[in-house]
């Protein structure tokens, strides 16, 4: 990990001293995400309520530039310029870090909930989208959300890495997760208040590691 990457994690722990008790888990999550994107994998993210919103938020930070400019590769830019709108596309598109929020497939989720079982909607999407070596991030303040736990079980069976973002104790997800960031709070809103700076720091760290500052080419 580059020193500039680690700086984001150090800053996180300085700003939120309560997280120092789970420093090793935060670093492990950062390393796992960096490895994922160095090997061109993707992350699947799920949660309920506020955690569903967090899932969407994380995807928004990963799939476009967060802090650094992420120009598309010159080879792709050149190919796009053969088309009428290619020059504008080449100047405005940004390189993504592949991420899918399992919470926004309303057609699939409502159909599966109606026809089969609402608790299995995330598990079904893991089955459809997941590949060995990908990461499933399950967000649950209690660590016991049934649909997130079931998704984690399918992910483990398929060879995905399971990363959990929970409250203190970690619940059932901690037992399933390869990496569990169990922030030291128990009340839902207080857990969520710590989840946001954690995933912001992780997104900043992985972006900094994968993309070269000031370089128009993509590192991968």
Automatic annotation (TrEMBL):
One biological process GO term for this chain? carbohydrate derivative metabolic process
- Please report the organism this UniProt entry assigns to the protein: Dialister succinatiphilus YIT 11850
Its Gene Ontology molecular function terms? carbohydrate derivative binding
Q: What is this protein called?
A: SIS domain-containing protein
Pinpoint the SIS domain residues: 33-212
